């Protein structure tokens, strides 16, 4: 029997560093053992808005101590979920670390695990982490059993949107000449201005945001309603590149140029930090309105 999202309302995306989980061995979970239902606590923000309010303990990783294990380890997933690597990533992860409290155990299907792994494992690799052995897809049931299935409508939706992926860090050119900026505008699919901001968090990984509106110089195939989130996803996936672009607690305005690959993935190619004294960038953006490459 397949269990879709309509039965569990299970697919809201949430914001989201793996730590001890990467080193944890695969824990056997006995479906016949005694379990208890508890309310998902407010401090377990990764799964608080997943679509149900009670979870089973022990969970499918064998964790039974809510305050000592489950809640603190759930925070390890936040950076991955923040990247938006898959629309059902939260549903998949929460079905394991905070399984819904029903009359029967509901695990993710093998096919859902594969779908999330194929989209999210490259993001983890970009950040220097392997896909955790504890999430080996072979441990999850086939779709003939009662389990949480992938939703086909999301796979079609994802194909239609440009996607941020792991890439080599783009070149950053300070105080460029007008000719240099004009060349980048002509040779790349899109160019935008965006203010990148890095929050200061003393106890966890840096978090990046795109402040205010993204302004198009050359829109190309980018979608106006999606570009701000797209750039934020790029920053969160390419953390080492992003960390070199903006200092903690600071904001920096950039002209970002790049290309969209045939598979829909975007690649940022040349970045120009735009300071007040950069007359070359200001002149290039004015000339571009009437320029022919």
Automatic annotation (TrEMBL):
Chief subcellular location: secreted
Cellular component aspect of the GO annotation: extracellular space
Domain FZ: start-end pairs: 32-150
Protein name from the UniProt record: Sizzled
Localization annotation: Secreted
UniProtKB keywords: Developmental protein, Differentiation, Disulfide bond, Secreted, Signal, Wnt signaling pathway
Disulfide cross-links: 113-137
InterPro entries linked to this entry: Frizzled/SFRP, Frizzled_dom, Frizzled_dom_sf, Netrin_domain
Organism (species): Xiphophorus maculatus
GO terms for MF: Wnt-protein binding
Domain NTR: start-end pairs: 166-293
Signal peptide bounds: 1-23
Family in the record: Belongs to the secreted frizzled-related protein (sFRP) family.
Pfam families referenced in this protein's UniProt entry, alphabetically: Fz
Gene3D superfamilies with a match to the protein in the record: Frizzled cysteine-rich domain
GO biological process terms on file: canonical Wnt signaling pathway; cell differentiation; determination of dorsal identity; developmental pigmentation; negative regulation of BMP signaling pathway; non-canonical Wnt signaling pathway; protein stabilization
